Amino acid sequence: MGELSQIDPVISRLIRAELARERGVIDMVASENIAPLGVLEAQGSILSNKYADGYPGDRLFDGCDVVDEIETLAIDRAKDLFGAEHANVQPYSGANANAAVLFALANPGDTILGFDFAHGGHPSQHDATTFAGRFYTAVAYGVRREDGLIDFEQVEMLARAHRPKVIFAGGSCYPRRIDFGRFRQIADEVGAFLVADLAHIAGLVAAGIHPDPVPFAHVCTMTMHKTLGGARGGMILCLSELADQIDRAVFPGDQGGPLPHVIAAKAVTLLLAAGPEYRERMERTVRGAALIGGMLHRAADETHMPVLTGGTDVHLFALDTSPRKATVQQALTWLHHLGIMGDSVTIAYDPLAPPDCSGLRLGTALLATRGFQDEDFRELGEILISRLSDPRGSTLATLRERTMALCNRFPIYREFEV
Ligand SMILES: *Cc1c(COP(=O)(O)O)cnc(C)c1O
């Protein structure tokens, strides 16, 4: 970062401060990950200079031969990795991808059915604050009170009553496998398109350790930077018959010129996800979440924070802080004192409203990328249980030492200097 430190020492210092912060915490924010150096290199490359509105072989600008090759590679790798008929690698983010899909498949005012953000879904599927809720008639389904699982009877009932054009499946805080086949049956019955929002689970799907949505969904949207662990941005997969519609909705519908540097970084991400070490890492991610989630579930009498659905099948789980008479912000502060990061979510039937609500979401994707093995996840599980059971106890200093020892065993970006 020699040049930057000359031109703008303040930003240069802040980037180094952020590196120090990332190095010094156990980050369990379920949407975060550590991008490999090669991905960062592509994303920070001179490709950033190029304008390339359009698609490979059909651009509004001259001089696109190289970026055509790069985007074609990214598309081919995406299709191969996920077994999809068509891929669009241009969406700037996961939310952009969802907006483009709605733009492609429904007209303003049409009804759409999304997974309620307050139950583990995502705002970009229905919420009034987003494109989805603002321009469409959005209806949302949730999870059952008794077991926290998607309420398929409700999905069916809402689909029959409202006849949506689009049904979304997939969320940001759903700890169990999603039955995409069941969603497809419902979509077929009412003539809706099924959109699988894989923002969180894309990495698990790529590794073949989550039931495959591609055979069932007309369209899949995803992010590349959550479990997939790479470039910062979104992607869409779809059936060939929807390819033109989707492509036109992304550009010029929803976005301007693509980001060739990010598309190159997406190509690198997809190459790595097809590699031999990737599946092992995804398996370790899910095993880590199951280990810690299971430990916390068994310790619920001590922590007074039950694990939603009693555990997890994926890379994240959520605790209900309300029986503890604590808000999630308090729980996050208790963890923060140790150097552990999580994040807050509203949970279904939450007695409190955000930001001070009752869902503590914790994930293992980033830690698995750092190299955490089963025994490290177990040690972290013990630390979490001690801390959440007795936040005012005298164990803080010892627990902090144990946390830092764990953190220091797995350094990140050793190539960079702080
Ligand atoms: C994170 C997420 C998104 C949005 O992705 P961004 O890249 O942050 O825009 C969309 N849907 C779901 C389910 C998500 O978890």
List the defining traits of the structure above:
418 residues, 17 helices
Notes on the protein architecture:
- By secondary structure, the chain is of the alpha/beta class.
- It has 17 helices and 14 strands.
- It has helices spanning 2-7, 9-23, 37-43, 65-82, 94-105, 131-135, 152-162, 180-190, 202-206, 243-254, 260-273, 276-298, 300-303, 328-336, 365-370, 374-389, 396-409, and strands at 26-27, 54-55, 58-59, 86-88, 111-115, 137-141, 166-169, 193-197, 219-223, 234-238, 316-320, 340-341, 343-345, 359-363.
- The chain has a 7-stranded mixed beta sheet, sandwiched between helices. A 3-stranded antiparallel beta sheet has the order 11-14-13.
- Helix 7 (152-162) packs parallel to helix 8.
- The model has no long low-confidence stretch (mean pLDDT 96).
Number of helices: 17
Helix content: 40-55%
Biggest β-sheet description: 7 strands, mixed
Strand content of the residues, in percent?
5-15%
Determine the N-to-C terminus distance. Answer: 10 Å
| Rg, Å, rounded | 22 Å
Shape: globular
Mean pLDDT: 96
- Secondary-structure-derived class: alpha/beta
State the low-pLDDT regions, or none: none
Q: What molecules are bound to this protein? A: pyridoxal-5'-phosphate
By oligomeric state, this entry counts as: single chain
How many DSSP E strands?
14
Strand order of the largest sheet: 4-10-9-8-7-5-6
Précis, in short:
With 418 residues, this protein is of the alpha/beta class. The chain has helices at 2-7, 9-23, 37-43, 65-82, 94-105, 131-135, 152-162, 180-190, 202-206, 243-254, 260-273, 276-298, 300-303, 328-336, 365-370, 374-389, 396-409, and strands at residues 26-27, 54-55, 58-59, 86-88, 111-115, 137-141, 166-169, 193-197, 219-223, 234-238, 316-320, 340-341, 343-345, 359-363.
